[in-house]
Design goal:
The protein is built from 12 helices and 22 strands. It folds into 3 domains: about 60 residues, Nucleic acid-binding proteins (OB fold (Dihydrolipoamide Acetyltransferase, E2P), Beta Barrel); about 240 residues, Vaccinia Virus protein VP39 (Rossmann fold); about 160 residues, Beta Barrel (OB fold (Dihydrolipoamide Acetyltransferase, E2P)), CATH 2.40.50. An 8-stranded mixed β-sheet has the order 6-21-22-20-19-16-17-18, sandwiched between helices. The protein has a 7-stranded mixed β-sheet with strand order 9-8-7-10-11-12-13, covered by helices on one side. The structure holds S-adenosylmethionine (SAM). The site of S-adenosylmethionine has 20 residues, from helix 6, strand 17 and helix 8.
Length: about 500
Amino acid sequence: MARRLNPFRTEVELIDAASDGRAVARHQDWVVFVEHGVPGDVAEVYVYRKQKKNLVARIDRIVTPSPDRAEPRCAHFGSCGGCKWQNMTYDAQLRFKQKQVVNILTRIGKVELGEIEPILGTESAYGYRNKLEFSFSNKAWRTREQMRHDQEVDEQRVLGFYAPGFYDKVLDIDACHLMDPVVNDIRNAVRAFARAEDWTFYDNRAHTGFLRNLVFRSSAATGELMLMLIVGEDDPEKVEQLFAHLEARFPAITSYLWIHNEKLNSTYTDLPVRTWKGTPYYTEQLGDFRYRVRPVSFFQTNPRQAARLYGVVKDYLQAVLPEGKSRHGLVYDLYAGTGSIGIFVSDLVERIIGIEYVAAAVEDAWENVRLNELDENRFRFLAGDLKDLLSEELAQTEGYPDVVITDPPRQGMDAKVVDRLLALKPAHIIYVSCKPATQARDLDLLSSWYEVVRIRPVDMFPHTAHVENVALLRRRAQQRIKPGSQSGEAINPDSSHDAAQASLG
Ligand SMILES: C[S@@+](CC[C@H](N)C(=O)[O-])C[C@H]1O[C@@H](n2cnc3c(N)ncnc32)[C@H](O)[C@@H]1O
């Protein structure tokens, strides 16, 4: 086929799901990614783009629907970039997530897996999030319906989610079913108030405008609801005007915070947070533990499933207790955030050392130890980059870890951190991952000294293709030299072509 594609129509059967949420089909020798398709569909598709070595298509007409098809609940489905699997039954979502984890680890990562436990799903596939972040924009994204009917958007001042692939256009959200429904009422009231007052909505190209972001964090368990407004101009009177308007209407809001961000980028975690009313944090509960979370700290966004995820970590920790012992001596909790995992498993450990980049999260971690009335002498939290802090010197001062728990962000562990783990050689590593492709890369790097004895995927994000995976690693009796391996033979975790080929088998 020529470098540029002449769009065409064809009928295909969708045979699998790719890790980015699209369905996968074959056309001649090509892998075709089909947007909003469900594996099992037979459909007429419009192939409109070449992407690396693959084709991209959208559905024109479903000839035979998949038995796994479901009616999406959300009116924004298809236009919004989130919840791409809402048109698939929840059982099928879980099946594909399990398959995705195993495929990526075994076929791309070439990791030998021991016991593969079934994915832990949820009973609450909607309203599960404790955090949502909306953006204001003066450029509205047209919905699929509006595009189909060639309609323009009447109102450009919108508040919602960035359109997929755009950094300046926002899809106006009327109802999102991922959080408590009161959040929809509050967000819509904020937008209506701002339009009536003729306040400016942010322009992400010109970098002008008053209103930038609106963040909600809440806990169903503690009943707290934090609202945080991010503004591009330092105008406390206007902020107060809006907050007073909301306070009179929404008693559910327990704290009002705001940040002035005049930077060109929208990252606000490095900026001072101002409190109008309430506390500068909210409290979340996972299992028996309470956690104080400040607005700039990372915290798991699906608390019900987070408790189950941490439960898996705890099971694995329990399973590798030295004989005759009820506690491990020393555990390192890497990428510790607000100390949540270490605290959750603390009754199985004598001492825990948590390491985390964000200083405010480390302060929260200390606060959480006190909040749960745990003995502070059993904990140590260090703020800084793991590349610098995880070292031989740390082990010599604090002790060598019996077990390391690691929970890195989506990009996985830095190669230096992996090297340090290989040097420290704890008896076991428990690796919690939110991106199986980077976990596969890291497990491969660790495989000279570690074998994977158990894995358990956990579904933290229903209706998306995202999946979390916990792996239990055991140190080998001696170093393994991989047959035929050349040092430096790296896996590219972002290769969607490889992912598609692997998923096709
Ligand atoms: C996926 S979160 C996990 C947090 C925590 N374990 C939990 O369950 O809530 C990853 C955390 O790693 C931190 N982080 C990212 N890069 C880091 C680095 N290079 N060194 C230390 N911490 C880092 C982030 O700030 C974030 O809190």
